[in-house]
Design a protein that fits this description.
- The chain is of the alpha+beta class and 157 residues long.
- The protein folds into 2 domains: 113 residues, no CATH class; 35 residues, no CATH class.
- The chain is built from 4 helices and 7 strands, in the order ββαβββββααα.
- The chain binds zinc ion (2 copies).
- One zinc ion binds next to loops.
Length: 157
């Protein structure tokens, strides 16, 4: 939890260097994630009239598997422009939820070991980043109807 008492914020702002454990951020709900480090936060909090403004960066490292080839990868996820504004802030404010939502937005749609990851062959399961498989040569050049051509209708006689 990251709670602030706004009376503790000096006029020139308050530096907040802290880490938030992953359990608090409930990031494990994402089933792709195997392990995740605490979120490292470097924020500056200041009061603008009655509003609390928190700016800074947050970063964590995720251990997960590539969505295409299923290899284990380590992904650094960071939010470089955190900007949380709480209008008419109460005396004591809990920023955990806002920080959580911010870093979730930085999560990629797909975890990829490489943008060019070739993934697994749908047919034989071979990791195509490591080696070509034998299925390729036929299916690649054929039309979408190619598989129909290969069905031997004579078998039904
Ligand atoms: Zn991959
Ligand atoms: Zn194959």
């Amino acid at each position: 939890m990251l709670q602030l008492n706004i009376h503790h914020i000096p006029e020139n702002g308050l530096d907040i260097d802290t880490t938030i454990p992953p359990e608090t951020l409930e990031l494990a709900n994402d089933k792709r994630i195997k392990d995740v480090t605490p979120l490292v936060c470097e924020f500056k909090a200041s009061m603008v009239d009655k509003d609390l403004v928190v700016r800074g960066t947050s970063t964590l490292v995720v251990n997960c598997s590539c969505d295409r080839c299923l290899e284990d990868i380590e992904e650094v996820i960071s939010s470089d422009d955190v900007c949380i504004v709480i209008e008419n802030t109460p005396e004591i404010v809990d920023l955990t939820n806002d920080i959580r939502e911010d870093i979730l937005l930085a999560f990629p749609q797909l975890f990829l070991c490489d943008a060019d990851c070739k993934g697994l062959c749908f047919n034989c399961g071979q990791n195509l980043n490591k080696a070509e498989c034998q299925c390729d040569s036929e299916s690649e050049s054929s039309s979408p109807w190619g598989t129909l051509d290969n069905i031997n209708f004579d078998d039904e006689k």
